[in-house]
Amino acid sequence: MFARRIVVIGTGYVGLTTGACLASLGHRVVCSDVNAEKVAELSRGEVRIHEPGLAELVREGIAAGRLEFVVGSAGAVADAEVVFLCVPTPMGSGGAADLAVVESVAGEVRDVLPTRCVVVTKSTVPVGTSKRLAEHLDREDVAVVSNPEFLREGSAVHDFLNPDRIVVGSDTQDAAERVAALYARLGAPTVLTDAASAEMVKYAANCFLATKLSYVNAIAELCEQLGADITDVTEGMGYDRRIGQSFLQPGPGWGGSCLPKDTAALLQVAEAVDFEFPLLQATISSNAHQRQRMVGKVREACGGSLAGERIGLLGLTFKAGTDDLRDSPALEVARLLADNGAELIAHDPGLRGDEPELPAGLTLVDDPYQAAKGAAALVLLTEWQAFRTLDWTLVAEALTGRIVVDTRNHLDPDVLRRAGLSWRGVGRTPVTALT
Ligand code: UGA
């Protein structure tokens, strides 16, 4: 494999992971960002993103002279062979992806890209973006390639270095092959295709995952009605290799910075071509229903009304192992509880307390027992490992009520029962406290 001169534009979690991992594969990588302060920090090896292994990889890359950080994109691309665009594509009006940043970066680098350089979109972009980008760049000698990422927050470095597959799409075959070659050392199956198909893979995969979760959450609700146990049901389903054991865990609904944005965007794309997609619509509406259903469980635990009740919350991030609150189902359940008049005391090991997204009326405390103190009910919303090993006798002493609502089926009901607490999960029979 030949080491390539790569520029990565944008040092968010996708960009920084891409840059640091490509440097670890032996390439020479320059990461550029508009934020001078961030560039200075990264150049010193200081990484603020909460991603296991990322800071170490950044420092190794810098020490080996293979990774550097610069301000601004135009100066950075001058001798690049491959330029990765890893800039945000937020949800714009009506759910469509907003490509303003992608287009503005393209405008900045258009005239300075070297001949035969390849521009790669790594951000999740609507089908057709590569084509639009090529028109925007208006450079016959520069090819555009779509190379979607499939990284999960909290395991991005691991996912990058151990991919299930590499997807590379371009209408210029040679450019797609050059980008695929960057990953040769990883030995992953590689799908070489056209640009539109590569862009579609990303949406199709994320929307499928969201649909899988909405389906599981609906089956869990049905299990409650029929007296079946979702944990056994999903285990039994998952042994079928066509289904698989992963992504079958019911919860308060799916969230984060990707699945909600991508489901909304694909629906928009479908609407734009008059394609009716009731399956995807139902995936999204079931997810909203799931949050309400969790609120109903807490209301029931409080005896029928939430007004004036003090509720303890364990977890607010959209999943464990991250400090990310974007589109967090836990946060949405918290907001709904607050709207119903509950007083909320929350603990989350990933948060500092100064996050602007935290709803008014919610107090963040730095220990889980404080969150339980004086609460009429305790609600687990994010599956942090530390919550499994709490001293449940201490928790029981702190609570005024007796019920723990476990929206992730994360706790051991038997341990709670022995501590004198009743457990309410999702899709499972409630467990009543030993008296
Ligand atoms: C997701 C995809 O999993 C990645 O493959 C993709 O690259 C990424 O989006 C992206 O587009 O960038 P991520 O947003 O990090 O990754 O989060 P996931 O681990 O997929 O979790 C999404 C949501 O589903 C979370 O709220 C999580 O708690 C929930 N979830 C996940 C469940 O409720 N049950 C499960 O069994 C799994």
Query: Which CATH-level-2 architecture of the largest domain?
Result: 3-Layer(aba) Sandwich
| Molecules bound to protein | uridine-5'-diphosphate-glucuronic acid
The count of helical stretches stands at 15
Q: Ranges with pLDDT <50 over ≥5 residues?
A: none
**C-alpha Rg (nearest Å):** 24 Å
Query: What is the number of strand segments?
Result: 14
Nearest-integer average pLDDT: 95
The CATH superfamily title of the largest domain = NAD(P)-binding Rossmann-like Domain
CATH class of the largest domain, anyone? Alpha Beta
How much β-strand is present in the residues? Answer: 5-15%
Helix-strand category: alpha/beta
Give the helix proportion (percent range).
Answer: 25-40%
Shape: elongated
The end-to-end distance, rounded to whole angstroms, is 67 Å
Q: In the CATH scheme, what's the topology name of the largest domain?
A: Rossmann fold
Please trace the helix and strand order, writing H or E for each element. Answer: EHEHHEEHEHEHEHEHHHHEHEEHEHEHE
- Describe the biggest sheet? 8 strands, mixed
Number of domains: 2
Strand order of the largest sheet: 3-2-1-4-5-6-7-8
